[in-house]
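Margin note from the TA: students keep mixing up input and output lines. Inputs are the sequences; the output is the structure of the whole complex. Example:
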Amino acid sequence: MLAEKALDLVRELQRSLDGTLPPYNEDKIRQVLEEMQTLFDQNKDKAQFAAEGQTHLLSAIQLRHAAIRRNKRCLLAYLYNRLDQIKKMRWEYSSVLPSDVKYNMCEQEVQWFNQYNRLLANYMRTLGDNGGLDLTQDMKPPKALYVLVRCLVDHGEFETQDGTTILLKKNSQHYLMRAECENLIRQGILEHIVQ
Amino acid sequence: MAEELDVSDILQEENTINEDEEDDDDEEAMTAPEVLQKLEEAWLNEKFAPELLPVKSNLVECMLAQINAMETNIENAKKADLRVSIHRMEIDRIRFVVSSYLRHRLAKIEKFTSHVLQEEEKRRDTDAPLLSDAELEFAKGYEANMKNHLASTALRHMPTNAATFNDKEMCK
Amino acid sequence: MLVKDFKKDFYDTLQRQRVLVLVAFDVDALCACKILQYLFHCDQVVYTVVPVDGLQSLEQAYLENAEGIRQVVLINCGATVDIVDLLQPEEHVRFYICDSHRPVDIHNFYNAVQVKLLMREDELSTIPSYDEVFRDDEEDSDQSDEENDDPESGYKKKRFDDESILRRQERRQWNEERVRILFDYTKFTSYGTSVAMVMFESAWKLSKDTNNLLWLAIVGVTDQYVHFKTPRDKYMEDVIALQSHVSRHNQRGSDGESLLSVNCLRISFEEELHLNLYRHWTLFDSICHSMPIACKLRLWTLKGQKRLHEFLAEMGLPIAQCKQQFSAMDITLRSEVKARMQEYMNKYGLENQDIVLPSFSMQFGYKNLLCATDYVLACAASLESLDSSKLQTDNFLLASDILQRSSPEKTDAALEGARAQLRSLVSQVQSSLDMHQIISAGPFLYVFVQEGTADSRFFSQPMSLIRLARFTLQAHCSVTRNKRAQSLPLVLGAPLSLEEGTCLIIGIPPLDTDDERKNFFGKAFEQAAQSTNMTVKCNGFDTFIIEMRIEDRSKFFDALISILQ
């Protein structure tokens, strides 16, 4: 069926909506592009005839044209959505992506990501006078100044802003300033205990 | 030509929030609590409006300067627990509101880049630009990045009649 | 050094500094820790809590976490050992010890700079005076003078000799006296006021006490009683003191109804039925698994069961209903159980003390009604839960959540665990008695839990072991014809780890010293181990529970017998 492979790509992306990036399906993309090319070539041939009046070919031409456009749309949607997911990861984690995610990205996506990082960093630097405001902090409204956190994994030593080092061992509880542990809570190393 | 508020930060040792001086232009000066309230309004508006609203960079700048002033004040103040804690909480909250406001705007810019840029073109020289300068740069850079990427991965390989961008196609 | 003013000497010095809190693994310590955490939250003191289950983990936790810390609080651990000697801290580190273990090590008491004790002063009155155990070192300098003078004329040496002989004699006497005093002082181990209670009173003096903290203090005091650490008189004293706090926090209106809203924690004082977990179990099972009644009526025997049936019948409680869940019984019956039991108890040889215990119960919302003893049993069960996939510290956090009342499912699971523990306890006692495994070895009775039985894994933890030992002793005394049994202590051994071949040995004092609950087995075990040159590990903070290899058991026991005779 025409444009089926493109639909496959879109479906694949939809299945992985829970956050992990599936590998860049280079193969399928190439196939889709090939299909588009063949359709186009076929169309080119027939178009000439159609111009000379053989109207029974027109519908075929239109069909192929529609298929080409559908392929294009699916392909662009696939790429765009992948970029969207990568962008979400930047906001969730940090500017360094974990290696298994990187493995699933193709070259150009990595470059795009780096460029996006640069843009974002430049933007954030211009805010405020003090070297900028990091917009990836403070994702949730702050409820209290200090929070009670529980350590879920052995994380080793952690240095706070005023220089004290805290040993984060599994199952130890700490009462720290919220701003300092926000990152670790997001990464899942600490668990915020609400009382 | 945006409004410029000149808020000075005379944060005294006591617990008073800023008092401001009158500013040179003939716009009214606002006290810091008023600025904060306006910022919160703008934040809520931005969060719930589906389209990008005109930017309020003056409010943002003012509050960020405020935060800085409060932080220096805290460092200089003696360690009177309660006031320091309350100031710190206030700083956290203000920072959250500012960050959230800017984040929402950024998300909308990223979603509707071309459209936003077009709108901005129209409004560049009027009183209510849609984007601040930094945001404009960001938007342009983002658009270029996106186009480059899509072109290099896919469009370049497509047959000629499909190999162009159509702005309408960018909106999903 | 004793802390005289809680606020000035302890609390204010902790402000604006980072504190390390090391907590022992029992319910009392956990309650005290939560009270302290609440106080710290009020004043935004940055802290770190690390649970420790023995001296080794105490050392390790201190070493790992000590960087940059100047204030360390030890809860229910560390009073009985010289803490400065053990941890070798730096000069500026201060230790605050809040511990119910007695006797307090003399070095901790007399260290004016680095160690502060948060305890009641009257409990430390038996400590030897400073001069009896410490001495200024003039003697040493004189002795070195003597050596220096050696090459000099013999006349001088001779003169020193007379004086120095006298001095040496006197010194020797003083040393012997000191050894004797220290031995007397450390011979018996016992427990002081519950740390949760001490913390609560301090919070009260700071005017920061709440109903929640009061409940934690109640749980701490009840934990001490449930695990036989304090005699009944002390428990009653504490209960009376707590009662005044309860009435202060939970005021009742003119019609007797509580003025607090239903969603708040409400505590009330009652003369509770001393039946373990009866609200969450069937009445019948609860009676069979409660120590005083079970022992008096000997409910593990057939005859005892028949008597129980008689008892229930006489009270007018239908058997069918007694074997249902308590909450499914008729309302009239439920409300009258206590009255009827008290009416008929004398005929069956029971006393008021066995049936009724003055205690507190709490209500939280419409559904959750728990009495203090049940709460303690649930927390203890979750602290000692046997899930091998979980670390001990996971259990600590689970028990902490239960005390927080954050999720009723966890509390229910813990109550189920408590029921399982009680069931295995009773069946173990039953099998010990049926197979006559309790043997008299002269100065004490001893019994071993067989390795490899299904229930034996329950007894590898200290708290269950204490309860098992006590239940066994009491059950044995109620069936045996030996008149001396009441005055014999019990030593119980339980397998700890089959792969390593280790077992736990616990010694508890005899039943007729119940008024004092002083335990001499700590010292006895130490001496036995020394005399046989064996390596025994005392891992926890209670010296009357030790760990050793199974092969060494018989040698150890022989030594113990000879010491105690």
